[in-house]
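Q&A log
Question type: sequence-to-structure
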Amino acid sequence: MAKMWDARFKKTENSRVNDFNSSISFDSRMYREDIEGSIAHATMLGRCGIITEEESAKITAELRNILRDIESGALPIDPEAEDIHMFVEEVLTNRIGDTGKRLHTARSRNDQVALDIRMYTKNQIKEVRALLARLLSTIADIAAGHTESVMAGYTHLQRAQPVTYAHYILAYAQMFVRDDMRLSQTYQRTNYSPLGSGALASTTYPIDRHMAAELLGFDGVTENSIDGVSDRDFLCEFAFDLSLIMTHLSRFSEEIILWCSTEFGFIELDDAFSTGSSIMPQKKNPDIAELVRGKTGRVYGDLVTLLTMLKGIPLAYNKDMQEDKEAIFDAIDNVKLCIELFTSMIATMTVKTEKLRAAASKGFINATDCADYLTKKGMPFRDAYKVSGKLVAYCIDRGTDFESLSMEEYKSFSEMFEDDVYEAVNLENCVNCRLVYGGPSVKSTERQIELVKKYIESVK
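Response status: OK
Response body:
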């Protein structure tokens, strides 16, 4: 394929240089954005009188035909083309002749590329947010069935205080809500059109950038033509958002991996989302969760690629910026796949509530409640804390727990203990007495579930 700049050069480009320079292998996925951007540009050129209305109509009609043919498979994308932009333009010119050559009037590939990647990013943010909404809905549904399923909350991976399974997983719902909020904000900052920036210094043609932006659904246009073609902040921001989503998925995956082990036994994954061993017939491995955890580092790497690519290049456009696409495409593809599979995995897993309750009864996670009991009877908290600590040591030595101690044993530590201490250290009561906003009580948890559901509805 002849290069558009051949007239300037005396030698043919080295074949290896062509391969090195080409981006068609990965930017071809932006064919829809490229064609839609060109349709808007041609429409604007016609309305502004830069090309005739007839030429504009002919170009836009054939661009729609090209889009239809690519999507139907009638027009395969040429892998020898330099990039998707030149492929579409060459097909257009071959089909309608010299009129097709007028499409690129008042436009550079620099602002064309910048436009395509912004449009693509906007579309992908919407898709990731839709997947997050499904994940949030799944978590809310699971939580609704476990508002009374008592389990131990952990610090330092040690049993700490009583919560419920609903309260525990709703913590992840809050993380994913914040992830969605960040994506919404990134979308807003992405939603400005660079089209009309030209190579870097705009154009002498009397174009209407705002018209083209409105045709493409942008909120406005970029304010500086140099920045318009060289800005990739929105990609770095999107990659960070994706990285943080993976951080939260990875943390949740680590819980899943621990919980489905024999040592914990809190959940069982569905067979459809587990794998076996090539040598050990008994194995049921949490490979989905492990791969989510593993792919997190890969998405981090994509973010670092983008930041490193940008950090040393002067204004305006540099070929280094071609490296933005493979990194962001890889991050998007992996995050979407991880969210989708993770959501299906947790939707089908079995929660073993009896195991949760049994483990909660063995960690003295009601020790703080015991101290609070004495404090409410009038004992200073630090003194109550010491009494409760001595009770823990006593129970460990005798292999028992607070709920099994006799009143005589309680009295040997403090005369303030009365029969109502058994209610105070009952795990279910320990949970439901925590009525503080955001706490683990049934009432508070139900409110949290409702808030998550309302959030999902508000962003549809």
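Response note: The longest strand covers residues 158-164.
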